[in-house]
């Protein structure tokens, strides 16, 4: 899951990106055009890392139990309106298998009840 760790590390080292992440997660339209590009690029990269994990699990090279926490985190993130909008508008970028898994399995998970991101509680 090196891909996911690298993507998350970007948020801890770049306060501007972290701000875009928080504001865009709530409402993408609140971002400037260049910030929208950064938000979309960040989330496309993040979802690509999740897709990679999906196939690693399917191939047996990544443990199902270890992946469960990452799927829960993705579910929580998809509860943010801006992230959900990004996913819905860019599903075509991903394999049909991964898209179906996210739509059928990940989105069927409950949002973690105590999860909050920058004052925003996902739905």
How would you describe what is shown here?
This protein is mostly helical and 123 residues long. It has one domain. The protein is 69% helix and 0% strand. It contains six helices and no strands. It has helices spanning 2-13, 15-26, 33-59, 64-78, 81-90, 96-104. The radius of gyration is 14 Å and the shape is globular. The mean pLDDT is 88.
How are the elements arranged and paired?
Layout: H1 2-13, H2 15-26, H3 33-59, H4 64-78, H5 81-90, H6 96-104
Work out the count of structural domains.
1
Rounded radius of gyration (Å): 14 Å
What does the oligomeric state look like here?
single chain
What pattern of helices and strands is seen along the backbone?
HHHHHH
Supply the number of helical segments.
6
Q: N-to-C terminal Cα separation, in Å?
A: 26 Å
Helix content: 55-70%
Low-confidence stretches: none
% residues in beta strands:
under 5%
The overall strand count is 0
Tell me, what's the shape? globular
Biggest sheet overview: none
Which structural category do the helix and sheet elements fall into? mainly alpha
Mean pLDDT: 88
Short key terms for the protein model shown above:
123 residues; mainly alpha
Can you summarize this structure?
This protein has 123 residues and is mainly alpha-helical.
